[in-house]
Design brief:
The chain has 15 helices and 12 strands. It is α/β, with parallel strands linked by helices. The chain has a single domain, classed as Aldolase class I (TIM Barrel). It binds flavin mononucleotide. Flavin mononucleotide binds next to α15.
Length: 384
C-alpha cells in the first residue's frame, strides 16, 4: 500500500508491519506478559460513547490548544519512543521535524537514537526531553544542563520504569542490542529488504545522548550497554523529583502516574504537568488503563496541575474522549511511530494528518466547535 492510500492509523500500522522484520516490529507492538495492558488501553476507549449535540453552528472548528504558555495546533503531541532509528534510520529527527512543522510538541526519549543538540536544530521550540535518571548522578545533572542549554521548554521525568519489565515477544525473538541473529530471525529479515538495506547502510543505532559519558572511542555496542547499565536507575524517589523541581526552571512534567495519591503528591512538589500513562502497556500488565483512572485523578488534583494522558490512542475520537474526561492534552506513541516506520517523515506527517482530520470531524459531529468546550457532558459509559 502507498502512503497516500492510508486512511487511518491501522493502515499505517499494517504498512509498518510489512516493512519491518518481525523482531523489530514486535519491539514496537509488544507489551508485557499476556499483553492485557495494551488491549485494556484500547478497549477503554471502546467502552465510552460520545453523545452528539445538534443544532450548533460548527461551520468554523478550532482544535488548537493552549499548553504550558503556548498554543499548539492540535491537542496532541508525539510521545517519547526509544530506539526509533532501529525502525528507520533517522526516525527520531523525522518525528521531531514532522511534529514541529505541524506545530505539535515532540518528546525526545531518554533512550533516543539522536542527540538533544540535533533535536534542538530540527525542532528548536517544539522539543521536550524525557529524562531517565542515570545511576551516576553527574550524568543526570549533565543531561538536564544540556536540555536547558539546548533551549527545550519542558522536561519530562518518566517514573514508571523502576525496574525493567517482562517483554515476552522480545524474549522469544532474542531481541537484544544488537539483536541476536538466529537463523529464523535472519530468514525473516531477508523478506524485508527495505529495512535490511537501511540497517546495513547505517548499522546498529546508538543511544546518542549517552555517548559522551561512555569511555572515549567506545563502540556502538559498548555505548548501548553503558546506557542500559545506567538507566533506568531503580532508586529514584520523590526526593529526586523535588530536586529536579529546584534545578529545572521551565515546565516540569512527571510521566507514568496512575494512582491519585501520587498525582496529589506530584502536584504538591509543584510539577506543571502529569502524564497519566501506563507506558503504552509496556511495564505492568495489570495496571489500569490511563482513561480508567483519569477522572479520579482529575477530581483529586483539580486545576492545580495540567493533566496529559496517553495509551491506546488510535483515533481522533480517542483524543476527544480523553479531553472530555478532563485531560488537557494527549500524547501518542505508536501511532506516529507506525508512520515513521512506514514512510519516514512523510509517514509521520500522514499519521498527524489523519488524527487531526478525525478530531476535526468529530468536533463537528458532536456539536463542539472548540476544544475548550469539551467536557463530561458529551460522554456516556457503554451500557454493555
Ligand atoms: C517502541 C516504544 C518505545 C518507547 N520508549 C519510551 C521511552 O523511551 N520513554 C518513555 O517514557 N516512554 C516510552 N514509550 C512509551 C510512550 O512514550 C507512550 O507512553 C506510549 O507509547 C503510549 O501508548 P501508545 O503507544 O498506545 O500511544 C515507548 C513506547 C513504544 C511503543
Amino acid at each position: 500500500m502507498k502512503l497516500n492510500r492510508a486512511i487511518n492509523i491501522e493502515d499505517l500500522q499494517k504498512m509498518a508491519k510489512r516493512r519491518l522484520p518481525r523482531i523489530v516490529y514486535d519491539f514496537i507492538e509488544g507489551g508485557v506478559e499476556d499483553e492485557l495492558g495494551i488491549a485494556r488501553n484500547e478497549a477503554s476507549f471502546d467502552r465510552e460513547r460520545l453523545v452528539p449535540r445538534y443544532l450548533v453552528d460548527v461551520s468554523q472548528r478550532d482544535q488548537s490548544c493552549d499548553l504550558f504558555d503556548r498554543k499548539y495546533a492540535s491537542p496532541f503531541g508525539v510521545s517519547a519512543t526509544g530506539l526509533a532509528a532501529l525502525f528507520r534510520p533517522g526516525a527520531d529527527l523525522m518525528l521531531a521535524e514532522a511534529a514541529a512543522s505541524a506545530n505539535l510538541p515532540f518528546m525526545m526519549s531518554g533512550m533516543s537514537t539522536a542527540s538533544i543538540e540535533e533535536a534542538a536544530k530540527v525542532a528548536p521550540s517544539h522539543s521536550w526531553y524525557q529524562l531517565y535518571v542515570a545511576r551516576d548522578r553527574e550524568i543526570t545533572l549533565d543531561l538536564i544542563r544540556r536540555v536547558r542549554d539546548a533551549g527545550f521548554g519542558t522536561l519530562v521525568l518518566t517514573v514508571d520504569v523502576p525496574v525493567s519489565s517482562k517483554r515476552e515477544r522480545n524474549l522469544r525473538n532474542g531481541f537484544a542490542l544488537p539483536p541476536r541473529l538466529t537463523t529464523a530471525t535472519m530468514l525473516n529479515a531477508l523478506t524485508h529488504p527495505g529495512w535490511v538495506a537501511g540497517y546495513l547502510r547505517h548499522g546498529m543505532p546508538r543511544f546518542e545522548n549517552w555517548a559522551p559519558y561512555a569511555r572515549a572511542n567506545s563502540s556502538t555496542a559498548r555505548i548501548n550497554a553503558f546506557a542500559a547499565e545506567q538507566a533506568p536507575a531503580s532508586s529514584v524517589t520523590w526526593k529526586d523529583l523535588e530536586e529536579f523541581r529546584r534545578l529545572w526552571p521551565r515546565h516540569l512534567v512527571v510521566k507514568g502516574i496512575l494512582h491519585r495519591d501520587d498525582a496529589i503528591r506530584a502536584a504538591e512538589v509543584g510539577v506543571d504537568g502529569i502524564i497519566v500513562s501506563n507506558h503504552g502497556g509496556r511495564q505492568l500488565d495489570q495496571a489500569p488503563a490511563p482513561l480508567e483512572v483519569l477522572p479520579g485523578i482529575r477530581e483529586a488534583v483539580g486545576d492545580r496541575v495540567t493533566l496529559i494522558v496517553d495509551g491506546g490512542v488510535r483515533r481522533g475520537a480517542d483524543i476527544i474522549m480523553a479531553l472530555c474526561h478532563g485531560a488537557r492534552f494527549v500524547m501518542v506513541g505508536r501511532a506516529t511511530l507506525y508512520g515513521a516506520a512506514a514512510g519516514g517523515v512523510e509517514g509521520v506527517r500522514k499519521a498527524i494528518g489523519i488524527l487531526r482530520e478525525e478530531i476535526d470531524l468529530v468536533l463537528g459531529q458532536i456539536g463542539c466547535p472548540n476544544i475548550a468546550g469539551l467536557d463530561q457532558s458529551f460522554l456516556m459509559k457503554a451500557p454493555y
